[in-house]
Amino acid sequence: MAVNVQSEQKYWDALKEVMDPEFPISVVDMGLIYDIKEQADTIQVTMTFTAVGCACTEWIKGDIEKRLLEERNVHAVDIHVVWDPPWTVDRMTEEGRQKMRTWGVSSR
Amino acid sequence: MEANLLKEKVNTGFIVEGSEDMNEEYLKALKQTLLIVGDTELLSVPPLLTVYDQAPTLNHKITALAIMQDEIGHAHIAYRLLKELGEDVDELLYNREPNRWKNPYAFDFELSNWVELGVFNAYFDRAGYTLLGDAFEHTSYGPWKRALVKVDKEELFHLRNGEIIMRTAMKDPELAEQVQKASDWMFLMALEFFGVADDLKSRSAQLDYKLKGKTNDELRQKWLSTAVPFCESIGVSVPAHYDENTKRYVIDVPFPCKFDVANKKWLYDEPDTWENVIKRFKDRGPRNAEFVQRLQKGAKEMENLRKEVS
Known about the structure:
Number of domains of chain B: 1
Structural class of chain A: alpha+beta
InterPro entries (chain A): Fe-S_Maturation_MIP18 (IPR052339), FSCA_dom_sf (IPR034904), MIP18-like (IPR002744)
Radius of gyration of chain A: 14 Å
Helix content of chain B: 55-70%
Number of strands of chain B: 4
Order of helices and strands of chain B: HHHHHHHHHHEEEEHH
Protein name (chain A): Benzoyl-CoA oxygenase
Oligomer: heterodimer
Domain MIP18 family-like (chain A): 12-69
Distance between the termini of chain A: 35 Å
Helix content of chain A: 25-40%
InterPro entries (chain B): Aromatic_CoA_ox/epox, Ferritin-like, Ferritin-like_SF, PaaA_PaaC
CATH class of chain A: Alpha Beta
Distance between the termini of chain B: 47 Å
Low-confidence stretches of chain A: none
Pfam family, one (chain A): FeS_assembly_P
């Protein structure tokens, strides 16, 4: 299992390069990614969005899929969108919060 | 304040906060800059609205609306700063003749299809992002610099929206053709945003007073440095390439050159002068009057109603 966690870390790192469309903060630092699992040549991503009415859901999913497909031996990406637990600002990383602060946007 | 002293101060990091820190020349250059910025932001909306109802999905429509709302917000920032500097903004907005507006010539055209909205975002918002990003980094005017934090971030959102629309469209042969067609007229239009070539105008009050940091050609290079690789990556051909020897982007067609307004087509076999380009800008494009009148319509109707009842 430890081996798996380590290999999955590279996908978390990859998603650090995928930016939220509205705020140039990664989807990882926004706290949108709940889980990443590698199953054979498919990556299973469990994620959420900041709001059910988010107009950028397809955009974000497309960017995530595109980036993960750039990883070696990844041939498919399955994205499962969940609404429970719901996203709140508490899910943002410290790095994400710091960036919000530079734009004068509260993350509390 | 004496001109040279103020120039020296702003170039060593002094931030201008109020009119007591300026001289007449600074104030004039600042007002001119903010008027161009405000007009550009506001007049970007009417062309976007010409194809807004062609959005392929509800999500695209919401995103386009969010972008237009952002642009109006950015315009509001520029006009509010102008108001604080003593300008009569209502007069500027509602009683100015269409041909006196300072928005880019490229915004005086209606768009032909949804794909053009994408290219508009990817090219023109990138130009805005380049110009305003430079102002954000370098401007000596404190109130503007602080307001640009929000603008910078939002323009990035717009240009990325354009990239997504272009990238997606390139996967469909019919839409890919629309992307190429849109790019063919919009690419040089975007390059014109940055104004006259440096060898014709190397210094300006804008630069001397550090309202902006980079010269026109430097900003044009910056735009090219992200637009060209992006277009190459999705298979859109553009009339510019990176030259390894000079480490600069080179425009492969005569620039500036003449533009066939009716067919939205550059006439590469007819090179032009910047003097003529400025003349074309001042004559304004085909939809200038209609777009400005659209913005002024409500205010004028309300004014007439007030006259009627008084």
